[in-house]
Amino acid sequence: MTNSLELKKFLNLNLLLVFAVVAVLLRVMGGGDVGIFTTSALAIIPLAGLIGRATEEIAVRIGPKAGGLLNATLGNAAELIITIFALREGLVELVRASIIGSILGNLLLVMGLAILLGGLKNGVQTFDRRHAMTNATLILLAFMALAIPSLFDATFTENEEFESAFLFSEGIALILILLYASNLVYSFTTEHQTGAVPETHHEPEWSTQTALIVLAAATVGIVFMSEFLVGSVEPVVHELGWSELFVGVIIVPIVGNVAEHLVAVQVAIKNRMELAMTIALGSSLQVALFVAPVLVFISLLFEHDLTLAFSLPEVIALAAASYVAASITEDGESTWFEGVMLLGVYLIVALAFFLLPG
Hints:
Elements: H1 2-14, H2 18-28, H3 33-62, H4 64-74, H5 77-88, H6 92-122, E1 125-126, H7 129-158, H8 162-194, H9 208-231, H10 233-240, H11 244-269, H12 273-298, H13 312-329, E2 333-334, H14 336-355
Antiparallel strand pairs: 1-2
């Protein structure tokens, strides 16, 4: 029964693939930018889900350690592709906003929904405190690493030393990647001792060939849809009166990560809060310690370099999310009211960015 329900949810999500065809037709026929933006965003949702599903199928076959590394690498593939296209188009502010938005979304929206719905269904839920606190400490460290270039950015700007500012970001990006690699090594080598990462017994349902074909096809689909999405961002921002900051912080992260968000909520409802917390905190760490620094180096291929210098509202929002999430995880227990608090903070942040002038 459980497998049939999961298959039904999987098929329902894939119904959104029809929007990929609609997006292509609108692009070819010269449709409105809002329509192209909306349909391409909706199409990315199931495509990201297919990448996650194919990655999971491959991970089951290659073993837990190599599979965990594969999941960690491809976990944010959809958003990484979107931001690469944004860098190519020179939308550096959008990229920076999406980095912050992904971290905020995982720490506040995903964790909040998982704790709320899991708590309403199962009451007080528990998870491994030591593992969660390790991740929460890394989140706080990542916040400081991302905030420091922002605080020093004014100094570099006043002295007109942009090259120094970029070299500063490159250095921090390299340190963050090393921290991410160290975290992976630590997680894999201590997993059997701490029991921090729960074992999931899942028999592969696809052949390796099928999984690889789906992975390749979904990636190609996301490449095209990301190009459509990014290409229509600026017209949509002007037409709807949204700020580019709001699109980056709220819209892009939700579109790129919604499939993974649903998984975290589903496992929390099944009273597997340990796995839900691992997904929420782990995804945040992937963005902060891997995606963000990788984008700094990828930007070298394009005209506009990406520095890790965020705006004051972004830094404040990230500080609030990091502190609240770390406080929630410190006792190894969660209740539905803690989920409400996290969602409340996310709504406040979303409202602030929505009302921020473009």
